[in-house]
UniProtKB/TrEMBL annotation:
The lineage of its organism: Bacteria, Bacillati, Actinomycetota, Actinomycetes, Kitasatosporales. This is Enoyl reductase (ER) domain-containing protein. Pfam families: ADH_N, ADH_zinc_N. Coiled coil: none annotated. The keyword NADP applies. It comes from Streptomyces malaysiensis.
Amino acid sequence: MKALAYEKAHSLDAFAIELIDAAEPRPRDTDLLVGIRAVGINPGEALIRQLRSAEPGGRVILGWEFAGVVEAVGPEAAGFAVGDRVMGTGDMTRDGAWAERLTVDHRVVARIPDQLSFSDAASLPIGGLTAWEALFRDHDSLAAGVDRVLIVGGAGGVGTLATQLLKSRTSALVVSTASRPESREWCTRMGADVVVDHTGNVPGQLRDAGVDRIDLVLSTSGTIGNVGWIAEVLRPFGHLAVVDLNGPLDLGPLIGKSVSLHTETVFSKIMAGGDIASQGRILAELAADTVAGRLRPIATTVLSGLSVDTMRAAHELAESRRTIGKIVINI
């Protein structure tokens, strides 16, 4: 099969992803074999490309957000049949979805309703699961006493879906941060009650907007540099959920308020153990909510083709940190 792969970690200037002939994936008993129709592109994958090299003689195939069609079902993969349209994530220790086919544990997969396109479906898994697991404690309930939530990076994939989940499933006041006019307008369209500029004086902007406290901060970008003002706006015994840590975080500013810190990585349950099947159930709810109009699809940039040029264009956009919504490639 064809796949996009590379050997050595590299920068965008030295882009080294190539279209190769790769061996067909071999399903495990709990796996589905999925023919890929669309993939979502995430900034995290661009970061991995810069940091992760293959083992000697090997290659890396990235991509853990996909939509496609089931081509084979393992003997322990209950609930799916050949021909089902599905979406899901995957396992970072295995080959990803930048390929014609993927093997994936059926428990991190959900069917795609007929009304949902492959490109819209591929925009949901990573952002939706990350937002859900970072925000909610008892299925879709916020922690006790949380009714004012601030989302840092409200126009990105995680921030966009977090805003919509909060507005559709809770009564919380939602504050989003965005620095450009177009991203501020996007946050408002997605349902944010208040939008502030994270490059300015956030505590002052919140005071001007009449927001006297924040119970929970969901930080999707810039956490290391923003921890000072995050600590200032969080109430004592508040909550900080972080999805972007890639270096040391100074917890000093948070200690005086006894803040609860929650780090979130979508792949923890499948890699480290946990209720893996909960992710398939969440994905099914995200799909149903989208069809019902409670969530809006977030595929704002849709490219075409499993090619080096298309993937490079997607990574240029992802690394610009100026994207709104989700980049998707139709295959």
